[in-house]
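ingest -> validate -> predict -> emit
validate: passed (alphabet ok, no gaps, 266 aa)
predict: started
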Amino acid sequence: MNIRAQLRRLKNALRPYYERLRYGQSVDEPMLVHEFFARKTGGVMVDVGAHFGTSLEPFARKGWQVYGFEPDPNNRSVLSERLKDLSTVSIDNRAVTDVSGQRLEFYTSDVSTGISGLSRFHESHRPTTTVTTVTLRDFLKTKPVSDIDFLKIDTEGFDLFVLKGFDWDKDPHPKTIVCEFEDKKTLPLGYCVNEMCEYLKSKGYQLIISEWHPIVQYGKRHKWKGFLKSTKQITDPNAWGNIIATKTQYFPDMMNVCRRHGPVAA
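emit:
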């Protein structure tokens, strides 16, 4: 092995340590759920906003049935190529919200592939296509799904609308849900993080808030802050993060998983 190859291997080996020093401790909320379900094979995951499949792939490779939604055609192309060997993954090109059958403008950005969506919240957003909407209620009527283990939502502001489009009158509900919050995105759409949390609580969930520091630049790595028990503990109005919601009977185990990865504010 030549010296360049050795230096490249050393650089790759040291990268995680450098990033931790620069950005601090970090978490991947869907992977916390993956750890929670460590012993479960053959589960069901619904991934709304699948992007490149980073969150769903570990579940799919355990044999889970995964229904992914990715309206961005460029992201979907990468996603489909990445998971082409997995027969248990189904990818839908529609945008999930609380109304089916609408045709809406869809915005993408040359700054970050991760902020595509139905809302133009960043100066780099441009309308690049139109998409058809569907609710989870209507989608799941067409699938042989009786029980969802994990519902992951990352729709750049439309997460509450996705939740409202689920058939909550039908049991059982998803065992775990991870959805994103960021008031900077959602207040223009008519809701805040407190409203989404109250909605989840009304459906029988207990919550862990994974808070991240305000975003400095899209397309770059962000800095994680810690786990909270309540939105009242969020001190920065520009903070963002993910809500980890579990049914009451699973909450202690999920809390234990989170505590293995970072402190939980008292």
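The two ends are 51 Å apart (CA to CA).
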